[in-house]
Amino acid sequence: MAVQVYGCNHIVIEVTDAKKAAAFYADVFGLEMLRGGEGAVWCKLGEHQFMAIFEVETLQPDRTKHFGLMVRDVPQIKEVRRKLIKKYGLKLEPNFRCDFRDPWGNRIQVGDLSDESLVWLLPYQEVQKAGVTFAKTGRKENKR
Fold it and tell me: Is position 76 within any domain?
């Protein structure tokens, strides 16, 4: 029998302060905290996934490991960039639309539902309800 993967259930990141990390992700992305305690926090990512935030004494950031979050559209990407740069003083990774390292060194890539490379998302009810369509010609956008 062939195995069929339906998606990713959860991701885990490490931080030195779980409460501050929860506040950061709630502020920048509006993530709903599901529960927490004893150095760990769980927050909802979309309808079917979650992110676990675990507190550790020593961070070990990696050069290339990262995960991607999806927001609705270009204005939301711009709002995320605004908060990251102006409110938190973070720098965006060069040559990417919205890649950054959080205050604990975790790399996050932010995309939006209008990216034509994400056409595989169209069957999902959440995407259909959002009314996402793709133009027949390529989309032009100012990255900054």
Answer: yes
Would you say residue 135 lies in a domain?
A: no
Residue with tokens 């027949």: 136
Kindly indicate the confidence band of residue 89, based on its pLDDT and cuts at 50, 70 and 90. Answer: very high
Domain holding 61, by residue range, is 10-130
**In CATH, what number is assigned to the domain containing residue 104?**
3.10.180.10
Q: Which positions ≥6 away from 125 have C-beta within 8 Å?
A: none
DSSP string, 45-102: ETTTEEEEEEE-SS----SS-EEEEEESSHHHHHHHHHIIIIIT---BPTTSSSEEE-
Structure tokens at 95: 């040559």
Quote the tokens at residue 99.
Answer: 């890649």
pLDDT tens-digit profile of 11-49? 999 999 999 999 999 999 999 998 877 778 999 987 778
Residue with tokens 């939301």: 76
**Residue 111 covered by a domain:** yes
Q: What is the pTM of this model?
A: 0.73
